[in-house]
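Question:
Write out your own:
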Amino acid sequence: MGRKKKQKQKQSQENSSTAAENQPDSSKSVGDFTSGENLDEFLNEIGSDDSPESYAEWPQLESLLAEQLSSPSMLLPETAGEAPPAVQAAEMAILVPKCGKSELSEHLYDAGFTNITNLDFSKVAIAHMLRRNLSERPMMKWRVMDITRIQYEDKTIDAIIDNGGLDALMVPELGSGLGRRYLSEVKRLLKPGGKYICLTKAESRVSDILFSMFRFGWKMSLHTISKELQTFMVVIEKDICASVHEISVMDEYSVESHGNQVCELYNALERERKFRSEYCSGCDVLYSLKDLKLGAKGNLKELEEGRRINLILGEPEGSQFYKGVLIDAQQNSDPFLYHIAVLPVPRIRVDDWIFSSEEGQKNLIANSKASRLLIILLDSSNSCVPKELFQKYLTPLVRQLAPRECDDSDTFPFMHINDGTYQREVVHQVTSALAGTIVVDEAIYLDLDQYDEDLDLVSDYRDLIFRRLTFERSANMVQSEALLAGQIEGKKVKKGKQRSYCRPSRSYGKVDHNYLVRPYHNVIISGLMLISLHLKGSSSTECMFEAVVIGIGAGLLPMFMKNWMPNLNIEVVELDQVVLDVAKEHFGFKEDEKLRVCITDGIQFVRDKADSGAGSKKFKSIERTKNDMLNYELLKVCTVLWFMQKENPLPN
């Protein structure tokens, strides 16, 4: 008898050694491992012969496990309506997936938790445990079952106790698919207030999936069970709503003294805490498709009027990933043509108001004829992906974002944005230490509706050439733009009247300083008109005004002001000499006695002027400032002018 026992022990050791040496064959499918006669092979390959008690002995678990199972739900009345009633130990429905030959279930049964169902892939393991417990623990149940497809009804289990089962499924060569399927079953089976108690070594691939899959609508606490074995207990309780809760760490200890594994766990924990903190503080969080499917922003299968979600599709470390915005339409009396539509936005347009602002995006979906719109904001990492590959990659992801009404047979459009450029030619490129790469190009537009109505009178508008200034660090925004001279002659005429038109030379076309292309320039000049009568009256007495323009750009605004407002002495403040040189060489900017440039910091210039004029009433405020002076972006959007009258101050 003793000889047979030794032979069995020797054979068991050999089997364990073989299983440890032979890693799973990654060429096999999951189905190959988890169906029919291959179940036991699968168990051997994922290490089922390892001792289950390698995670912790019962004395290490008894107190904490009994406390977690016996304690009432942490759900508060304000989050769950009414907290679920406490369940007696003998009545508590407990599931132990991948039980193997562990004694954990037996100890729980003896502690009074008698309503236990044990699951395992292996017929051998289940048969062995059934024979061992049939007489002593008659109420305990044993089932051969695939734990990634558990055959029980939703919300029927009070507690699921995982003794290393998740770790066993997270074999690196097979990826996270089995683990995700298993945890999805856990989430489905638990009642509100139910607990998933997971004993784990908490390797990074395991902790990452635990933190992310139980992020919305679950309360989580982390306990250290064995410092020597580096075993942790993660207790996760099911909430009613999709709230995000902070993770409680009950007994942190020195990471430095416990190796890389614990270090990885706490790094993952800090990343997750940061995400949850940002989410709770209302930061503009980018949700993954996994987050959304877990209920981060409600039920995506249902349309929610006006809902707007910033998201990311794909993995940043993968070959392709995309940032975007998902928007549900407002109620519309007219029927929608599409359940969902996709709108890719070119890299150079993503900062346009219509695509970047919430109000602009609402306008987009209102005109899309779709009940849900996915706006994809392309960037340097994906803007060159061929259209066919782009659509092939996104199509299955978009289907997961579609509302319930959209079935697999429905098609959805990939809409197209015309960037408006018919032809473009780079004229000059230079690099500045302050502003980075600066590009001057000439462009012909397909559509000139965004510009002044004068341009609409030109019959062949595709021949109009514009010279543009762009900073590469904000390549999606044209900083300055000018019409080349000779294309529109004469003063403004009423509609229906003729004007002469000629095409300028592409190589030698000069900038027309009597015409402002950008609409915001019109707003600036309109502001000056508020004091036009005073300026006009002062001009008769040869009264001059000092005007300061902060940021030169291409020099178009100060040149226009010099031409049309002769009683202004204009000083332009610019930080970057390279920008000034580009304005002179390519946009015809010229200094004279009425227009001069000061190379200095604009913020300091304004402070100095304010200090020097503190005791004087000569300062009047209308002045143009940079949107981000510290970053030298020279964004000419908000404009203010400082006027200083030499002789007679402006009226208060």
Observations:
- DSSP finds 21 helices and 22 strands in the chain.
- The chain has a mean pLDDT of 75.
- Residues 354 and 364 are 7 Å apart (CA to CA).
